[in-house]
């Protein structure tokens, strides 16, 4: 059995890119009106974690619990890109151990590890290459984060950094808030204003459950 896993971090992101990669590999099939135009191919089980941050270890995510209930020895767990499944080296080792304990192969379709037939294989060569490639990738991310922080600090010191401007401000923000009071959904407001749902939530932050409700904006 082929088991496919997909994930995005926020509701504003789309699974479409991953679905295209999986379709090219023959694991999904284009079908109008089903799962946004895609369905699992015969013999494939599809599990998705939409709006799930990578900070949650792979084995603790909701979809992975469902995978654990369906996986059997001889199955293959496939992801379009490794970072959709694992955040760092510790997470990769945890997933590899999980796969090895259940006799499940692990496959990635794109990226530097895509040439491996089974990333869960227990041989020394596979383990070393995974460690090196993952460590290098993690090092690059750490350097990028460090440079970003340094750049922001330098810009703030010179009075040039003001942060990212909100996607909805001024009259547009008030229009969104008024429409929300009238019963419009976040998804509908995002479509109407051509912004992400996250941008709408930012504009409505103090009106959402748990944040208290301010007086209704004037018309």
UniProtKB/TrEMBL annotation:
Cited SUPFAM superfamilies: Resolvase-like (SSF53041)
Keywords tagged on the record: DNA recombination, DNA-binding
CDD domains noted in UniProt: SR_ResInv
GO molecular function annotation: DNA binding; DNA strand exchange activity
InterPro entries: Resolv_N, Resolvase-like_N_sf, SSR_resolvase
Domain Resolvase/invertase-type recombinase catalytic: 1-159
Protein name: Recombinase family protein
Organism: Microbispora triticiradicis
């Amino acid at each position: 059995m082929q088991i496919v896993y997909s994930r995005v971090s926020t509701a504003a992101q789309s699974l479409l890119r991953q679905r295209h990669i999986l379709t090219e590999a023959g694991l999904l099939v284009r079908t109008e009106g089903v799962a946004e135009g895609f369905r699992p191919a015969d013999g494939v089980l599809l599990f998705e974690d939409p709006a799930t941050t990578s900070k949650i270890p792979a084995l603790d995510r909701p979809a992975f619990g469902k995978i654990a209930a369906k996986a059997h020895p001889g199955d293959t767990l496939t992801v379009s890109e490794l970072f959709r499944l694992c955040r760092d080296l510790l997470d990769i080792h945890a997933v590899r151990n999980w796969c090895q304990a259940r006799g499940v192969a692990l496959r990635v379709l794109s990226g530097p590890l895509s040439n491996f037939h089974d990333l869960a294989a227990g041989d020394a060569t596979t383990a070393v290459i995974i460690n090196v490639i993952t460590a290098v990738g993690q090092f690059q991310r750490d350097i990028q984060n460090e440079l970003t922080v340094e750049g922001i600090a330098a810009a703030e010191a010179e009075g040039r950094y003001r942060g990212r401007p909100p996607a909805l401000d001024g009259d547009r923000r008030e229009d969104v808030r008024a429409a929300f009071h009238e019963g419009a959904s976040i998804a509908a407001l995002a479509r109407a204003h051509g912004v992400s749902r996250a941008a709408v939530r930012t504009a409505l932050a103090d009106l959402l459950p748990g944040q208290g409700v301010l007086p209704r904006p004037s018309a």
